[in-house]
Structures are given as C-alpha cells and as structure tokens.
Amino acid sequence: MTTRASSTSPESCHATLPLSAIVTGASSGVGLYATKSLTERGWHVVMACRDLAKAQRAAASQNISDAQSSLLEIDLGSQQSVRHFVAAFVATGRPLNALVCNAATYQPLLKTPARPKAMRSAWRPITWDTFC
Ligand SMILES: NC(=O)c1ccc[n+]([C@@H]2O[C@H](COP(=O)([O-])OP(=O)(O)OC[C@H]3O[C@@H](n4cnc5c(N)ncnc54)[C@H](OP(=O)(O)O)[C@@H]3O)[C@@H](O)[C@H]2O)c1
Known about the structure:
Elements: H1 10-14, E1 20-24, H2 29-40, E2 44-49, H3 52-61, E3 69-73, H4 79-92, E4 98-100, H5 117-120
This protein binds NADP nicotinamide-adenine-dinucleotide phosphate.
C-alpha cells in the first residue's frame, strides 16, 4: 500500500517553500547570529522582535536580505502581543519547522524572576495551549 499527500494537503502546499524558523529576539546577540547562520544554510527566518526598526538595522548589518527573512513584531511580555504574532505568522502561510526561543534578558544576579506588571497577578507558563 502506498500513501501520498493529496494536492491540497498542508504538506504539498509547503513543498515549494524553504524550511522556516522563528527566532525570537533576533535583533541582537545570539538571536541575530542564529538568524544569519540559518539563512546562510537556506532557511527562511521570521525574526520575531519587539523593536522592528532595530531588527531591520541588525539584519542589514549582517547582509540578511528580505528574501531570506521577514520581520514580525512580538513582545513576549504581553500575551496579547504573542497572540497577535501567532495570527500574523499563520497568515504568512509559511510552515514552522523550527522555533528558537532565544529572547530574554540575562540577569543572573536577580534574586527573584522579573515579570512584566501585567503578568504578575495571573502568571502561568507559556505552553502550546497559550496559542490555541
Ligand atoms: N549572553 C550571555 O552570556 C548569556 C548567558 C546565558 C544565557 N543567555 C541567554 O541567551 C539568550 C540571548 O542572549 P544575548 O546575549 O544574545 O542577549 P541580547 O543580545 O540582549 O538579545 C536579547 C534579545 O531578546 C530580545 N528580547 C528581550 N526581551 C524581549 C521581549 N519581552 N519581547 C521580545 N524580545 C525580547 C531583545 O530585544 P530588544 O533588542 O528589543 O531588547 C534582544 O533581541 C537570552 O535568552 C539570554 O538569557 C545569554
């Protein structure tokens, strides 16, 4: 018995697109260089950043072209922003082959986790259900 995807299946729709990754915090440091490395290997990277102007300058500084990457706004301190990002990403029609959860600030000397004010009262971990 053989199986094959129908011509309208998601697999066949994505067959002609390059592998896609979302990299959060792609506007500097590890996220920016991960983006550069992935695009050099043929991936399309969605740079998920809260400061799009900064992200655009960062991409230009590394010669990452608009064809290799796209910018989508996200502030990971806001669930509303995360949901907006997810809707915008789904609307692109791109597959999601890798999700690089990089964005954060590195503050090893903090005694307790620093959370945005809006999340302090009803904080819960972000899981896949958060996006559904
Ligand atoms: N550097 C180290 O020694 C070290 C050590 C251990 C772990 N890490 C971890 O490695 C990751 C990258 O570190 P890095 O040194 O590359 O840091 P970085 O250069 O400061 O980059 C952090 C990135 O995360 C973004 N970001 C922060 N908060 C965000 C939010 N609420 N919503 C959206 N984006 C947000 C920043 O955006 P903006 O540009 O808008 O601020 C920036 O693009 C972090 O998770 C860090 O904790 C780093």
